[in-house]
Design a protein that fits this description.
This protein is an alpha/beta fold and 341 residues long. It contains eleven helices and 17 strands. The mean pLDDT is 97.
């Protein structure tokens, strides 16, 4: 077999097209992955709509990739051997030489950042080429299709929680119970935080409690800041929604030195009362997903603590339908492409 199926975007805003391509060979410092599953993420819209600066078309999206190393290129360390199950996430590599990289701020690499499905072809395909720097080992307990969303949605929420400054027993709120939030509630509960779920309406309260939330706040009928203050204030609010005003509404409920961790890319601005920030030394902080070792930590913790995504599965040939389902907001809660028909 010399060809493979791939789903590509040929122009900004164009459809996801199923095509036949030659199976690629890895170069130095690269591996070839036989893809078994790939999650569809909201951020894939950056590729589909051509919003990333300098994006080259055609491009295969996909950065929630689970598969098996098929072929290893020159100079790849022996730890990455054929047959190993691995994941590939958003952040795939960095230059290592700019000032930000020298300070270990790889997410802010100024010259050579590599992003799966953006700067090179991603996982909407039977095979993909990935830098060895992108690889995370997959625990045996995690099935391929179930693990795929953990490479971005899981990684982002897990990594934000473990860097939010909260300690076990502290109040931590998850704003939004969607694709990221339903994972955030599980992680927060398993990490030992007093977990508060915040969402609009009462319909998600049973699910939030089932996922591990100790408290539920209906932001439609009550003020989240007031309710969080009644609980003693939140050491952190993990904002997974894409709504600036909803994020703003939680700021008054932060405890002293509390942080609003912004994960959702909202179009609307976050408004903050300067006195609220000053008097409590509160902060608003953006959070980037993480590197391959952060992804590996996420996978290991998920296997250990039994954190699982709630997924809907589509075959690769229905990628356009699957993407539109994700974009509609009707998915519950992650959408995953599987390579088996």
């Amino acid at each position: 077999m010399s060809t493979m199926r791939a789903v590509q975007v040929s122009r900004p805003g164009g459809p996801l097209e199923l095509v036949e391509r030659p199976i690629p060979d890895p170069g130095p410092d690269q591996v070839r992955i036989k893809v078994n599953a790939c999650g569809i993420c909201y951020s894939d819209g950056l590729t589909k709509e051509g919003l990333w600066p300098g994006l080259e078309f055609p491009r295969v999206p996909g950065h929630e990739v689970i598969g098996v190393i098929d072929v290893v290129g020159p100079n790849v360390p022996s730890r990455w051997s054929p047959g190993l199950r691995v994941g590939i996430g958003w952040h795939a590599g960095q230059c290592g030489y700019c000032n930000n990289c020298r300070r270990n701020d790889y997410y802010a690499c100024q010259t050579g950042i590599q992003i799966s499905g953006v700067t090179f072809d991603g996982g909407y395909a039977d095979y993909m080429i990935a830098p060895a720097t992108a690889l995370a080992v997959l625990p045996a307990e995690l099935p391929d299709a179930e693990a795929a969303p953990l490479m971005c949605a899981g990684l982002t929420t897990f990594n934000a929680l473990r860097n939010c400054g909260a300690k076990p027993g502290d109040v931590v709120a998850i704003l939004g119970i969607g694709g990221l939030g339903h994972l955030g509630v599980q992680y927060a509960s398993k990490m030992g935080f007093r977990t508060v779920a915040i969402a609009r309406g009462t319909d998600k309260e049973p699910l939030a409690k089932q996922l591990g939330a100790d408290h539920y706040i209906d932001s439609r009928s009550s003020d989240p800041a007031v309710e969080l203050t009644k609980l003693g204030g939140a050491a952190a609010v993990i904002a997974t929604v894409t709504n600036g005003p909803a994020m703003s509404a939680t700021l008054g409920g932060l405890a002293p030195r509390g942080r609003l961790m912004v994960l959702g890319a909202a179009d609307e601005a976050i408004e903050a009362d300067p006195l609220t920030l000053i008097m409590g030394r509160r902060a608003v902080e953006g959070w980037y997903s993480g590197t391959s070792i952060d992804a590996e930590d996420t996978l290991a913790f998920s296997a250990l603590a039994d954190v699982r995504a709630m997924n809907e599965f589509y075959p690769l040939e229905k990628a356009e339908e699957a993407y539109q389902h994700m974009a509609s907001g009707k998915a519950r809660f992650r959408v995953v492409l599987t390579m088996d028909s």
